[in-house]
Amino acid sequence: MSCNSCKSGSSGLPRGCNNNGNCSSGSCGTFTVFDWLSDISNSKINPFKIVEVRFKNGRKGYYRNNELNVSIGDTIMTESEKGYDIGAVTLTGELVRIQLKKKGINIDDELFSLKRFPNEKEISKWQELMRKESEIQVRARIIAIDLGLKMKISDVEFQADGSKVIFYYTADQRVDFRELIKKYAAEFKTRIEMKQVGLRQEASRLGGIGSCGRELCCSTWLNDFRKVNTSAARYQKLSINPQKLAGQCGKLKCCLNYELDIYLDALKDFPKKDIKIKTTKGIAILQKTDIFKKIVWYSYKNNFMDWHEIDLKSLNKMIEINKSGKEVSSLEDFSIHKEEVKKLISEDSITRFDKKKKRKYAI
Fold this sequence. Notes:
It is built from eight helices and twelve strands. It is elongated, with a radius of gyration of 32 Å. It has helices spanning 94-102, 120-146, 178-188, 199-206, 230-235, 242-245, 260-267, 312-323; strands at residues 50-54, 60-64, 75-79, 84-91, 114-116, 152-158, 164-170, 191-196, 277-279, 282-290, 295-300, 303-311. The strands form three sheets. Strands 2-1-4-3-5 form a five-stranded antiparallel sheet, covered by helices on one side. A four-stranded antiparallel sheet has the order 9-10-11-12, covered by helices on one side. A three-stranded mixed sheet has the order 6-7-8. It is an alpha+beta fold. The chain folds into five domains: 1-30, no CATH class; 50-115, no CATH class; 123-200, GMP Synthetase, Chain A, domain 3 (2-Layer Sandwich); 226-266, no CATH class; 269-337, no CATH class. Helix content is 23%, strand content 20%. Helix 2 (120-146) crosses helix 3 (178-188). The N and C termini lie far apart (83 Å).
């Protein structure tokens, strides 16, 4: 996915717009859909009359296009409940039909329409309102703190005509903000709308750099926030350290789920962790497991310092011996005997390449 600014250079490699995820065209973000049908044209098929328009914070809407000739990236004026709004066209054509089906929106539903292309005066007003959003956010937080509400105003979004402002907030519990709305309406002289977002959604909108050194997945491409449990870290043999496992949202990192399925498939071949091996030398307990190499380390109960490396096939064989009511001779008989490491350097000294000093013999 890329915008029109990311054109190729003379060598054929993409130059990039160097905006690092904050592209002015809004087409390098999380909710962008790549139009893989853009190079396919067929005059016999009537173009789909609904387009996708994106606003601030990834908010999207679908609007009917009756007569305007629009393309992806165009700034467009749309209808709203009261007044108008301005956004950027992010998708047109048959892929919009697929997106509507994915989001459960019926084509015959009543939708707002595209109005026209905004003029310079309307765009200037829209940009001026966006510049005021940070100042209003600070003032809104102060009012919420004065009322003693346990909530956080994370962002503010103006409608392009200034007739409405949306306050995005996070809260752990239900908040009664009826008095807050009255205060906001009297302070900002406009219609107020409150939208609650989760901690993961807030982090995706604010963005940032993760512990891996890359931009957050939720702010670049991830839009399906699945539940993450601490069991995902246990299956992958990670230390249960909240400071390392938590992301910038304060919850467990989404990337813990990326390789979880592979670990679960690999663990199907292994016995349970609490299985102990009965040997003539005593009971052996599991100490460590290497899932992908299919190797385990066992030690005797009375000697935890001496670990024995055993492959999965030998382990299952020992378990079968115990199930038959017999004891295993010893762990040493089933451990992996590694061959001696061959010497990489010959018996000569490693200083054989150094210039040897000539000895001076006394005459």
